[in-house]
# Entry
Amino acid sequence: MSNSLALPDSLHAGASVSLLARPRRARPPKEVTALPILHNFYDALFQAHGQQHWWPGRTPFEVIVGAILVQNTSWTNAARAISNLREAGLLTPAALEKVPRAKLARLVRPSGYFRQKARKLHEFLHFLRREYRGSLAAMFRTPTLELRRQLLNVHGIGPETADSILLYAGNHPVFVVDAYTRRILQRHGLTHGKESYEEIRGLFEQSLPKDASLFNEYHALIVHTGKHHCQSRAALCSNCALRPFLPQPSEPLP
# Structure
């Protein structure tokens, strides 16, 4: 397979694009080494599964709410909580910030850890009002690195949640790392399992063109693969698009 990267239709109508023609990338951490095979992973996954149309959210604010509510639970449970908020007419920053904490906790109960998540939502909304007068548009105009630093200082927002907000709600070019990403890389012998979130994020961001649409699609394809093939209890490799890249398929996978 060539080193060209087949991008989603939203970028170049599915055509293969030379990496030499892509925009310059921000300098990654020195300790991270690029992995050209990640280009091939993307090509194989996109050819097998096509566009995934992520993230499941109607508005940028709903995406933010979902990124917080999906912590430590399934998207099905988070979606039930979001549905409760929508029915209550609370899916705007101003409305959600005004709702009493106890009522908010009851509404997001299906997502689990509902008291903690109610606080996390309010903490984000306080941050949004304090720093950006409640404007998501103003917030997302902030340079990526600065906004990421600010989000990580908000109670309850860790790296994966911050990057989900930046990428899926704000269209900032940051790669989202999750458990599926770690599992796939480790089973293909590309990581050892002890790498930090930032190391894996840097690995993707150095190895790929720094493009939000590409990062969006790639992460969605990884999630699809993790759910249907590279599961935690079983590696269902027979029909997986990434099977050809396994270093030694005959050996037991971690």
